[in-house]
Amino acid sequence: MSAISLPRPRSRRRRGEVPESVFGYGLVAPALLVTLALLAYPLGYSFWVSLHDVTLGAAHWRWVGLDNYRDVLSDPLFKPALLRTLLFAFAVTVVTLAVGLGFALLLDDDFRGRNLLRGILIIPWSLSQVMLALTFGWIFNSTYGPLNGLLKQFGVIDEYVAWFADGKVVMGIMALGLAWNLAPLATLLFLSALQTVPRELHKAALVDGAGPLRRFALITLPWLRETVLIVTILAALNGFLVFAPIYILTGGGPGTDTTLLSWWGYETGFRNLHLGESAAIFYVMTVLVGAIALLTTWALGRSKDA
Amino acid sequence: MSAVGDRVVTGGAPTQRPPRAPLMSDAERARMRRRRAFGRRLRRVLRWFAVAAMCVWVFAPFYFLLLVAFQTKADSLRTPPVWFPKPDFSNFTKILDHAFSSAPAANPSDLIVPGIRNSAIVAISVALLNVVLGASAGYAFARLRFRGSRAIPLALLGSQMVPAFALLVPYYIVLRNLGLTNTRLGVVIAELSITLPFTIWLLRSYFSNVPVDLERAARIDGCGRLQTFLRVALPLARPGLIAVGLFAFMVSWNDFLFQVILNSNVDAIMIQPAIAGLYNVREQSFGIMAAGSLLAALPTMVFALVTQRYLVRGLMSGAGKV
Question: How far apart are alpha carbons A306 and B170 in whole angstroms?
């Protein structure tokens, strides 16, 4: 800009031209209307459904107030399903963080083949959860799966193991699969954060005689705090909302061992056809997701002050 | 980098160091150097192990899948498994054969080609709608001032925290009442709801990072508001538009929840439920299951390789969901 201060072009209104705000609303309106119609309206509608006893196909909705919520919260399945869901989300988060950070630290170093590795690292992330369920279902298959074959060839096991017979093992397999799916993204996020760590800090610490572990704990880790929180929220929510692997691999079983909240809500609504109660379960989930998100955002804000 | 750096810092002239650092004897210095050389070698070996572990983690599941996809059925049922088979394409030809026949689907593997077709139509539509709606809204939020131009994007970002599950029951009821279940249009509507807010947010930050000078110049030269947007700003944002388009494509291609609940009918099958169905008949052919899912994953794999840079930037800009 020149030294003479011109009025900013955007504030200048020409004759016959629409004002800035009108133009802005015009551009925003289509997207906003779509969002309101497809997001806000269904969200309200969902709550409305959850206050009724709705059976699929029946024309009549019976008003039940908050009974669906009372039923859901007092259901003997609720507490174990919630605990399993939280445990699952926690496991996914821990593995994703560990693997993602480990790979990022590795790729932050210079070595031959680094760029190639970094380029193709994203592939597991591009796969759908259906795909990862099929992949891990095949690997851990009890009769022909390659893992059983491998372990037996190396003499680790004598007989093929029926991995899917034990609910806890299945949860572990699914958590591993989901972390496999998410870790590449975590790695890329950590990598881009690592590149902003000032070199001088490391050099200064080196001069002061700090070993690699101390340098990691005192310089790198604090610098990555924000990214850790972003990855945490990403992984925790993905774990909390896992669905396709349960649908494909277990159907909530054996027994109810892998019935997480998502599957419970699906089963209630679309297998047992109680849509009102299903909507209530999903609403409870939504509130919990909101709580997780808010908590993390709050932590994020605090980390910026610190 | 570290090899040179270390020597400069530790082996350099002692006078540059703060006085509290004690001077070393020659013997001490030699021992120090040996230790460093050993440390470097150890580091290289450790790194080699770590890189190997990383490759195993990333590619082993993939290799197992490729293995069974390119195997004859007889080989795939062998114990112990055949680790390095002669490539065999019969699984793929069996799936693709159905693309050229008009016979009705007789078994689950016949649904893969129709599933890919339906999903392609849906995902491309969702991508185009995202680009058109997202570009105009993103531009307006980035460049224009009006009531709500600050608050609405934040609300959109917050709406990313609404899980798709919360929309499941209402979409099912409403789309059923409208006769839109088991249609592609129904899935397009549902997928749009989970992609558009993120798209607007990404494009808003993309437009804010494009220098504003050219648009100002255009305005001074007499361009109208609409012309400035269409002729100047949009072409500059082309990489961003392509990235969000591909991203919306990937999300709606990979989504399972809406696809399986809204389109349960065989005629309107989408790709993810189609390959999920292969798991139920896995004992008949693991090869078909693997080959089908690999075909289904091909487009998203390619797109992910292309868009990863934008993705990271978008996520770092504060949006917390994929």
Answer: 43
Measured between CA atoms, the residue of chain A closest to residue B53 is A103
The whole-angstrom separation of Cα B299 and Cα B290 is: 16
Shortest CB distance from B170 goes to which of A46, A189, A243? A46
Identify the pLDDT of residue B20: 58
Kindly determine whether residue B163 and residue A237, on different chains, have CB atoms separated by under 8 Å: yes
DSSP string, B155-208: HHHHHTTS-THHHHHHHHHHHHHTT-TTSHHHHHHHHHHHHHHHHHHHHHHHHH
Are A188 and B139 a contacting pair at CB < 8 A?
no
- Secondary structure of A231-262 as H, E, C letters: HHHHHHHHHHCCCHHHHHHHCCCCCCCCCCHH
Q: What's the predicted TM-score (pTM) here?
A: 0.86
Contact assignment for A128 to B297 by CB distance below 8 Å: yes
Any idea which architecture B94-316 has in CATH?
A: Orthogonal Bundle (1.10)
CB contact under 8 A, B169 and A269: yes
For residue B222, CA distances in Å to A16, B144, B207 come to: 13, 18, 21
What would the two tokens of residue A248 be?
Answer: 């494909």
Q: Running DSSP on this structure, what letter comes out for residue B46?
A: H
Which residues of A fall within a CB distance of 8 Å from B321?
A: 234, 237
ipTM: 0.87
Residue B267 has pLDDT above 60, yes or no: yes
Name the residue in chain B with its Cα closest to that of A278.
B169
A1-48 per-position pLDDT tens digit:
445 555 555 545 566 788 888 999 999 999 999 999 999 999 999 999
The pLDDT score that the predictor gives to residue A59 is 63
Question: Which of B68, B163, B272 is closest, CB to CB, to A286?
Answer: B163
| Contact by Cβ (8 Å): A239, A91 | yes
Contact A165, A76 (CB under 8 A): no
Domain boundaries, chain B: 2-64, 94-316
> Closest partner residue to A23 among B65, B165, B225, by Cβ?
B225
pLDDT at site B22:
61
Kindly list the structural domains of chain A, giving each domain's residue range(s) and its CATH number in brackets, ordered by start: 67-305 (1.10.3720.10)
Number of inter-chain CB pairs under 8 A, A vs B: 293
Place of tokens 């297998």: A271
Element (H, E) at A301: helix A275-305
Residue A96's nearest CA partner among A189, A174, A178 is A178
Task: Reply yes or no on whether the pLDDT at A158 is more than 80.
Answer: yes
- Residues of chain B in contact with residue A224, where contact means CB-CB under 8 angstroms, are none
